Amino acid sequence: MSRVVLLDGGMGQELIRRAPEPPSDLWSAMVMHRHPDLVRDLHVDFIRAGARVITVNSYAATRDRLARFGLEGEFEKLQRLACRLAHEAREEVGIEGVRIAGCLPPLKASYRWEDADPPEITAPVYREIVELQAPHVDLFICETMASIRQAEGALGGVRGCGRPVWLAFTVDDRPTGRLRSGESMAEALAAIRDKEVAAVLLNCSTPEGIAAALPGLAGAGRPWGAYPNGFPEITEEYRARQNVSVLAGRPDLTPERFAGIALGWVRDGATIVGGCCEIGPAHIAALAAVLTEAGYEIGAELEKVV
Questions:
Q1: pLDDT tens-digit profile of 247-257?
Q2: What is the DSSP code (8-state) at residue 181?
Q3: Residue 306 located in a structural domain
Q4: Which among 89, 112, 203, 238 could bridge 168 via Cys, Cβ 3.0 to 4.6 Å?
Q5: Residues paired with 168 in a beta bridge
Q6: 304 falls within a domain
């Protein structure tokens, strides 16, 4: 049996459905602050659906994002709370072999690669997040990296952390096979060739955009995979406002269709799959079911690439 690592899905969009108030610009962080039980329960639901790696809900809790709303003083509290809620969920379910991933997101805004500071500035900022999360997580995912520059900053901050590091690039929603910055997958892989990266992924892009870029990962020399979102595309309005209320899910990406797409990637060699925004527990449950039916072992540990 070949092993597949099954990730969870997206937190923010699912929390919109569960929280009593409308979304805000710091949505997932504010829900965690006001309704921590909703975050813990969603982690629980993803684990019960079949996820064996869950990511702490700290994506929106960076100093840069919090400072824009006068909430920088909540930074350490929210980072620790995100870790605690993931641990509580894992303990509640009681399934062996579930791992918790630390989250290293874009510091200022998602998909705005042109605004990213150089790595020498961002690496120490990431390091602060790493030092807060490292005692509580089993690995780190540098995710939604829209450019090589963003990835280099995150990898600089997590270097030598004592935990496996996975790197996830976000790619053009159109099937160009390129990062959102326009850089090629070949350029991206060349830039991280000598970095401490245990696995390379694509995330928070349409399945169509990911499908066009995935063949470029096959020669990465390390495990690879993907966790797409369920948006039609990332709009310029969202890039400008960074408020999830302007994005809508695509009704055609049902749990069954999502599971079929991801299973195809696994058959092509991906060993890590899951979901991002708009991919909920039902999608992950459907994917777990088709993987099991196809004879794959679902786990949390990567197999070695020979």
A1: 789 999 999 99
A2: T
A3: no
A4: 203
A5: 201
A6: no
Domain containing 274 — which CATH number? 3.20.20.330
**Structural contact between residues 98 and 54, judged by C-beta atoms closer than 8 angstroms:** yes
| End-to-end C-alpha distance for the chain, whole angstroms | 16
* pLDDT number for residue 306: 41
Burial of 78 (0-12, 13-18, 19+ CB in 10 A): buried
- Length of the chain measured in residues: 306
Give DSSP secondary structure letters for 12-73: HHHHHHHSSS---TTHHHHHHHH-HHHHHHHHHHHHHHT-SEEE-S-TT--HHHHHTTT-GG
The CA distance from 168 to 224, in Å, is 9
Domain count, the chain: 1
Percent of the chain with pLDDT over 70: 98
Residues 6+ apart with CB under 8 A from 98: 47, 51, 52, 53, 54, 90, 300
Residue 218 resides in a domain: yes
| Global confidence as pTM | 0.96
Expressed as residue numbers, the domain containing 195 is 3-299
Contact 245, 217 (CB under 8 A): no
Q: Is residue 172 part of a domain?
A: yes
